[in-house]
Each structure stands twice: as structure tokens, then as C-alpha cells.
Amino acid sequence: WYGCSCCPPNVARTLTGLGVHLYHLRGDTLFADLYHDGVVAFELAGRTVTLRQATDSPWSADVALTCRLRQPVELSLALRGPAWCSAPRLAFAGATVDEKPGADGYLHLRRLFSDGYRIDLELPRNIPLDGVADIELLYRYGRELAEKIDWEGILSGKEHHSRIAAANARH
């Protein structure tokens, strides 16, 4: 133990600074970096744009963003495509948008936004159950994975070792 512990101040610093990690604005593009329930308001071309984000992530793959503004405004919205999701699906105002994450890892959507427009993002989980089912995967993928695992087999060691053996035999 040290005379000055680092954990409490780091937790406080992280929690108070969390807002700067949720979104960032570059030019006329709002980048959504993390998915959560919440509201963000920002100024763009002299107008206030409010974006309401609703999700049950990580328990659900769906994210809904609703735009609130007084007058229509053209803007770019960049939605982060997580590395664990190989096929995100995007819809704008009810219409499917064929957009894949770019080299920067974001799905870019440039449109004329009006009040009440909704962006729907689906981030299907591609959980790798073949080969290994262990605590690291549970940590990464949470409840969705926990519901699919044969816990008795893993705790006895039989299921875990048989999956690893099967995976090794395929390679």
C-alpha cells in the first residue's frame, strides 16, 4: 500500500470526465463514441441540436437516437461501429441505410435532420462460442453469453476442455 492511494482519485476523475468520452464534435460532425441512455445538446451553425439516445446496451443490440431541433439542419452523425460487431445495421427516418463502418471505425450519416427524425442502429453480437467458453468471454459479452453456456460442464472442467480439444482438432 502506498501513502497516497491512486484508486479513489482515478475513479473520481474517470466518472467526472465520462461525458467527454460519450460524444465529440469535429467540424459539423457529431461522433457518438459510446452507447447509453442519455441526451446531448450541441451548437451547430448557430442552432441547438438535441440528440436523445435510448438503449438497453449491453443487454440489447438496439440503439435509437432521436433528433430534436427547431429548424431542419444538415449535419453529419458518425456512429462508432464496435470491433465485436461485423455487421451493424442502420436506418434513418424508417428507411434502411446501406452504410458500413469506414476506415475510422464509424458509420457516417450525412443528412438533412428535422425535428423528431430517428436513427436506428442495430449492433448484433457475434459471440464466438466455438472453441472456448470461459470467464474472459463472459466478462466481454455478459448476460447474453451466460445464458448460452453449460455452466455445469465448465465448472467440472469437462465442457471447457472438450471445447478446447474440439477447436484444436479443427486446426
Structural key phrases:
single chain; alpha+beta; disordered C terminus
Structure description:
This protein starts with 6 loop residues before the first helix and ends with a helix. By secondary structure, it is an alpha+beta fold. The strands form two sheets. The protein has a six-stranded antiparallel beta sheet, with no helix packed on it. Strands 1-2-6-9 form a four-stranded mixed beta sheet. The protein is globular, with a radius of gyration of 21 Å. Helix content is 26%, strand content 35%.
Task: Provide a short characterization of the protein structure.
This protein is α+β, with helices and mostly antiparallel strands. The protein has helices at residues 7-16, 19-22, 135-146, 151-156, 158-170, and strands at residues 23-26, 29-32, 38-44, 47-55, 62-68, 73-80, 89-92, 95-97, 106-113, 118-122.
